[in-house]
C-alpha cells in the first residue's frame, strides 16, 4: 500500500469497469445513497445479496492490483503480463456488452439516450461506444435501433398488431417516424415488408399443394 501514498493515478477503461461493478455492488450492500455528501455513516442493508461484502473487497483488491501492475510491472517489457491484461480487458468488455444488451432488451419500449444508458449501467460514454464498435461495428444508438426494428419485424410476422400498435409498443414518437426508421434499416416500409412476408408464405403454400405427393 506504500506505493499508493501521495500519488494521483489515472484509471483506464478496464479499471473503470471494475469501479462500476464495485459501486453497483455497494449500492446493494449499503443503505442510503452513495452520492449523498452528507452521509457520514455506512450501514449494511439487511436484504443485501449473499457474499456482497466479499465481492466489494475482491473488486477493490483487483482495482489496486491492476493499478499497481500498470504503473510498475507493466511499465517494463513483460509480454506475459500484457497478454493477461488484454485477456482481462476482453472479459470485462464482454461482460459489459452482455449487461448493456440485456438492459436494451428490457427497454425496447422506451426512448433511451446514451446518457441514460451510461447512467443506468455505470459506464463512461467513451468506453461504451468503443465496446459496441469493437463488438458490433455499430454505435450504441444504431444498435438499439436495429434491435427495435428486429422486434418490429417479428411482430409484423405474427400479425397480432397493426403498425400503429407496433409503433406505440416500441416507444416511437409517431407511426411516421417508425416507418422512416424501419425503411432506413430494412430498405422497405412496414407495409412493403408485410407484403413480402405474405408473398413468400403464399409461394410456399402453392409449392406444397403442387407437390407430387398430394
General description of the model:
This protein is an all-alpha fold and 214 residues long. Among the domains are: 1-66, no CATH class; 145-210, Orthogonal Bundle (Arc Repressor Mutant, subunit A), CATH 1.10.10. It contains nine helices and no strands. The protein has helices at 13-29, 52-71, 79-106, 114-121, 125-136, 140-158, 163-169, 175-186, 190-210. The mean pLDDT is 84.
Describe the protein's topology.
Blueprint: H1 13-29, H2 52-71, H3 79-106, H4 114-121, H5 125-136, H6 140-158, H7 163-169, H8 175-186, H9 190-210
Provide key terms for this protein.
mainly alpha, HTH_AraC-typ_CS, DNA-binding, DNA-binding transcription factor activity, elongated, 214 residues, Homeodomain-like_sf, 0% strand, Arc Repressor Mutant, subunit A
Brief account:
With 214 residues, the chain is mostly helical.
Largest sheet: none
The Cα radius of gyration reads: 24 Å
Tally of separate helices: 9
Helix content: 55-70%
Give the CA-CA distance, first to last residue.
81 Å
In quaternary terms, these chains amount to single chain
Beta-strand residue percentage = under 5%
Order of secondary-structure elements = HHHHHHHHH
Mean pLDDT: 84
Domain HTH araC/xylS-type: 98-196
Protein name: HTH araC/xylS-type domain-containing protein
Organism: Blautia hydrogenotrophica (strain DSM 10507 / JCM 14656 / S5a33)
GO molecular function: DNA-binding transcription factor activity; sequence-specific DNA binding
Amino acid at each position: 500500500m506504500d506505493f499508493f501514498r501521495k500519488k494521483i493515478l489515472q484509471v483506464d477503461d478496464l479499471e473503470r469497469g471494475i469501479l462500476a461493478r464495485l459501486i453497483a455492488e455497494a449500492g446493494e450492500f449499503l443503505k442510503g445513497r452513495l452520492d449523498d455528501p452528507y452521509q457520514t455513516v455506512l450501514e449494511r442493508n439487511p436484504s443485501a445479496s449473499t457474499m456482497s461484502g466479499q465481492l466489494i473487497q475482491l473488486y477493490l483488491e483487483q482495482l489496486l492490483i491492476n493499478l499497481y501492475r500498470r504503473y510498475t510491472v507493466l511499465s517494463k517489457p513483460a509480454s506475459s503480463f500484457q497478454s493477461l491484461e488484454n485477456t482481462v480487458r476482453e472479459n470485462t468488455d464482454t461482460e459489459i456488452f452482455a449487461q448493456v444488451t440485456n438492459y436494451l432488451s428490457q427497454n425496447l419500449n422506451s426512448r433511451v439516450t446514451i446518457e441514460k444508458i451510461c447512467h443506468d449501467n455505470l459506464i463512461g460514454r467513451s468506453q461504451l461506444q468503443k465496446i459496441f464498435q469493437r463488438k458490433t461495428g455499430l454505435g450504441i444508438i444504431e444498435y438499439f435501433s436495429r434491435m427495435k426494428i428486429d422486434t418490429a419485424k417479428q411482430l409484423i410476422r405474427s400479425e397480432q398488431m397493426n403498425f400503429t400498435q407496433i409503433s406505440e409498443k416500441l416507444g416511437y414518437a409517431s407511426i411516421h417516424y417508425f416507418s422512416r426508421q424501419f425503411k432506413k434499416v430494412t430498405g422497405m416500409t412496414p407495409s412493403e415488408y408485410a407484403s413480402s412476408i405474405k408473398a413468400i408464405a403464399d409461394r410456399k403454400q402453392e409449392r406444397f399443394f403442387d407437390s407430387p405427393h398430394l
